[in-house]
Write a structure and sequence with these properties.
- The complex is a heterodimer of chains A (328) and B (334).
- Chain A is of the alpha/beta class.
- Chain A folds into two domains: 183 residues, Rossmann fold (3-Layer(aba) Sandwich), CATH 3.40.50; 130 residues, Rossmann fold.
- Helix content of chain A is 38%, strand content 20%.
- Chain A is built from 13 helices and 14 strands.
- Chain A has a five-stranded mixed β-sheet with strand order 9-11-10-13-14, sandwiched between helices.
- Chain A is globular.
- Chain B is α/β, with parallel strands linked by helices and 334 residues long.
- Chain B has one domain: 3-Layer(aba) Sandwich (Rossmann fold), CATH 3.40.50.970.
- Chain B contains eleven helices and seven strands.
- In chain B, the strands form two sheets. In chain B, strands 1-2-3-7-6 form a five-stranded parallel β-sheet, sandwiched between helices. Chain B has a two-stranded antiparallel sheet with strand order 4-5.
- The radius of gyration of chain B is 19 Å and the shape is globular.
Chain lengths: 328, 334
């Protein structure tokens, strides 16, 4: 058992998986010699060679489009999109091709591929290095969308994603890369996709989140307990597709008050889906209206520190919203 | 013009029985095509996409492959290619009529959206040019696993305007992938003529910009198409990288059964091109070579008609997909 950062957990999981499965290849912009702009793949080309860890031309549709073909022809490609903001040139390949190849071929073909992409803001990334893109992909049947919050979850979810027979969008919060540390067992383990995790038990209110804002929610929950005497449960969805509906309904029934927290802008964000599920299946278990706390409805995150901070969902904002809900 | 142009010697590159087999495939593909249009006009097939006019190009290119082992990544124009790859007439008509046992898609896709794992035919969608990157990826898989197979992407000249054409040509050349980009240039992307699509005379001219050979070939001449394709395949198998082949051909019918090509090209133009219809010119070639005579042609036509009739009857009687299967195959194990 080692304590490591979120980023180190991604790298060590890739290393461990590549050692056990020769079908795995990694490629993308700058992932080879440079080890990626965040150093996630640092040292992997030295260990596994240029045949398995390759710098690609600067072309996202080509990165994903070729990975589809490679997956069909016996490999387990893990293409990297340098920033989730740059995934849209590959949107066509992901949505029109990868997601529906199994369906359109009546089960004849499948695309076992993991598209890794750093998402999220708070790192002075401005409009084009800060976006949360999960809602676009969570909308698409045929895809799986994974958003780990902790180094432990990174390892188990990434291993499961690589083993999965279907295309997975694996979104790593770049703010978490170096700021979030945790214990990660040395041995290999799998966390099933579609299984949420209660990160903190509570009885008064439920905070439902995914990705980096899970960590912010846990911080807020600590403060709620210490300063306000409010017991907040934090449910980490871990994957937004498939979605653990049972866990959402269980925490709703337990506390009767739900705050949904996400960094993506509010309208049409994935929180709307969570809210709808609760409204459909647990309306009479609620003691207060469902509340959402999310990024504002502006096109993307601005650069200046003051503006960026104003955009971000922070532990303080979560605390304040949760307290309001608890006192409803 | 057609007969006058034929001064044939037996090609050294293709055995006589293979030439006859090519001809059979061309005749079969055209007959299936003609039947599809009849079924459409009778209201028995909602939509038809045709390879009518492209048969020599497609069949000859397939014959240069190790069929069933090499990958082909088709587009909607490739009926004759499917015939040559070994998809049976029954399978083709099950697909046309969206029957349960359509091996391409189980009735889920529109006609001419091919894909059959048994024959290493990659599944295809409707957004053009995505398949060029899939071909590069299939070739990457073969190269990484040290198989000596190649992948061939087929596409129209309209596709060359898409960004993914550029991305695929570039990445295939940079990574020296065993892939062949096979352009079936029929001069029209639905109604838009080539001069409104690109400012060059030959698609193949673009190859130089990517660092790969580009070859123009007369798509109505199956022997030449075969020879060009065989050279490209050999180059790919030797590990020397991709080739762009441009086969100049012509589509004798509208883009689909819902199109009216008289809106954008004259009947005279179509009639002029029909003089080099490979169905006629290739038959003439093989007669000149002494490989075909009236009796043999009559026999081929009778066998083809029997196959097409059988496929029509078989597919029309075949069951539709069960509505209860709507939710199947979204994910593995569904």
């Amino acid at each position: 058992m080692a304590v490591m950062t979120y980023l180190e957990s991604v790298r060590e999981t890739l290393r461990q998986e590549m050692r056990r499965d020769p079908r795995i290849i990694i490629y993308g912009e700058d992932v080879g010699v440079r080890g990626g702009v965040f150093r996630v793949t640092e040292g992997l080309q030295a260990e596994f060679g240029e045949g398995r860890v390759m710098d690609s031309p600067l072309a996202e549709a080509a990165i994903v489009g070729t990975a589809i073909g490679a997956a069909v022809n016996g490999l387990r490609p893990i293409p990297e999109i340098q920033f989730a903001d740059f995934i849209f040139p590959a949107f066509n390949q992901i949505v029109e091709e990868a997601a529906r190849i199994r369906y359109r071929s009546n089960g004849d073909f499948g695309v076992p591929m993991v598209v890794r992409a750093p998402y999220g803001g708070g790192i002075h990334g401005a409009l084009y290095h800060s976006q949360s893109v999960e809602a676009f992909f969570a909308h698409v049947p045929g895809l799986k969308v994974v958003m780990p919050a902790t180094p432990y979850d990174v390892k188990g979810l990434l291993a499961s994603s690589i083993e999965d027979e279907d295309p997975v969008i694996f979104l790593e919060h770049k703010g978490a890369y170096r700021s979030i540390r945790g214990e990660v067992p040395d041995e290999r383990y799998l966390i099933p996709l579609g299984l949420a995790d209660v990160k903190r038990q509570g009885t008064d209110i439920s905070i439902i989140s995914w990705g980096m804002t899970v960590n912010f929610s846990v911080t807020a929950a600590e403060r709620l307990r210490e300063e306000d005497g409010v017991s907040a449960e934090v449910l980490d969805l871990r994957t937004v597709r498939p979605l653990d509906i049972d866990a959402i309904l269980a925490t709703t029934k337990k506390t009767g008050k739900v705050l949904i927290v996400y960094e993506d802008n509010l309208t049409g964000g994935f929180g709307g889906e969570v809210s709808a599920i609760i409204a459909e299946h647990a309306l009479f278990d609620l003691d207060a209206p469902i509340m959402r706390l999310a990024g504002p409805d502006v096109p993307a995150m601005p650069y200046a520190a003051t503006l960026e901070h104003a955009f971000m969902v922070t532990p303080d904002k979560i605390h304040d919203a949760a307290l309001k809900l608890a006192r409803f | 013009m057609a007969r006058a142009a034929v001064k044939n010697k037996m090609p050294k590159t293709i055995a006589p029985d293979v030439l006859e087999d090519m001809f059979y495939n061309i005749v079969l593909a055209r007959a299936l095509d003609d039947r599809m249009w009849i079924l459409n006009r009778q209201g028995r097939a909602p939509v038809v996409y045709s390879s009518n006019g492209h048969e020599a190009t497609q069949v000859a290119s397939a014959f240069a492959l190790d069929r069933g082992r090499d990958w082909v990544v088709p587009y909607y124009r490739d009926l004759a290619l499917m015939v040559a790859m070994g998809m049976t007439p029954r399978e083709i008509f099950l697909h046309l009529l969206a029957r349960r046992d359509d091996p391409n898609s189980g009735g889920r896709q529109m006609p001419a959206h091919w894909g059959l794992k048994r024959l290493n035919i990659m599944t295809s969608g409707s957004v053009v040019t995505t398949q060029m990157l899939h071909a590069a990826g299939l070739a990457l898989g073969a190269k990484r696993r040290e198989e000596d197979t190649v992948a061939v992407a087929y596409f129209g000249e309209g596709s060359t305007s898409q960004g993914e054409f550029h991305e695929a040509m570039n990445i295939a050349a940079v990574w020296k992938l065993p892939v062949i980009y096979f352009n079936e240039n029929n001069g029209y992307a639905i109604s838009v003529p080539q001069r409104k699509q690109m400012a060059v005379a030959d698609v193949a001219a673009r190859a130089e910009g990517y660092g790969m050979p580009g070859v123009v070939v007369d798509g109505n001449d199956p022997v030449k198409v075969y020879e060009v394709m065989a050279a490209a395949v050999a180059r790919a198998r030797r590990g020397e990288g991709p080739t762009l082949v441009e086969a100049k051909t012509y589509r004798f019918v509208p883009h689909s059964s819902d199109d009216d090509d008289s809106a954008y090209r004259s009947r005279e133009e179509v009639a002029e091109h029909k003089k080099s219809d490979p169905l006629i010119t290739f038959e003439a070639t093989l007669r000149d070579l002494g490989l075909l005579d009236d009796a043999k042609v009559a026999d081929i036509r009778a066998r083809v008609k029997a196959q097409v009739d059988d496929a029509t009857r078989f597919a029309e009687k075949a069951p539709d997909p069960d509505p209860d299967t709507l939710l199947k195959h979204v994910y593995y194990g569904d």
